[in-house]
Amino acid sequence: MRRSLTKEMIAANFKQLALKKPLYKINVRDIIDVCDINKNTFYYHFVDRDDLVIWVFRNELANLLRGSRFAELISDTALKNDRYRDLPFYVNMRNPEDDLNLASFWTLFGNYLYDNEAYYFNILRARGNSNLPKYIFSIYTWQFELDIRYLLGARRMAEQDVKFLAGYFCHGCLGWTLSGIRRHSPQVVWPDGGYKNITHDIMRLIVSNAP
What we know:
Mean pLDDT: 88
Number of helices: 9
Strand content: under 5%
Distance between the termini: 58 Å
Structural class: mainly alpha
Radius of gyration: 18 Å
CATH superfamily: Tetracycline Repressor, domain 2
CATH class: Mainly Alpha
Largest sheet: none
CATH topology: Tetracycline Repressor, domain 2
Number of strands: 0
Order of helices and strands: HHHHHHHHH
């Protein structure tokens, strides 16, 4: 079996397992057994169970982006030490027409999570929680820093302020989304079925006052 197919097979079997019981009740041995592979095969592809959880998120979101209208807008930036830097997770809307109006991207992002709500509910349950929320906050906080710097243009803002704003907005935007999954409540979606561009509109308002 080709390596890529093996990785996809492990992920697919793991997702089915995670639909049946919460993450804290699943260990690597359980994954190995349900996939009918040996531990060397598992550890060839993944560092541990949490690494598999992160790969599922990144791989599925990447495939969704590549097959969407955002395919030509995929951002190729990635954190230096990102293990999965080849899997896109954001889009580049930095042009005069869109100017960081990311409402449609966050709609796609939110719909992906809610289309997989049962799986992510078990992944995000409080007891024995995975590293996924921390990981998501890390990659998107970094991306929000880049967005803030883009919006600043020639203006200046202290580095600590840029980092604070990026973290603040990231935890507000994505924390709201993830909390909806934990409570089985798709509260982040507005009544018209989409997201608004509140986060980046407020970013723009704040940085417009920078010297």
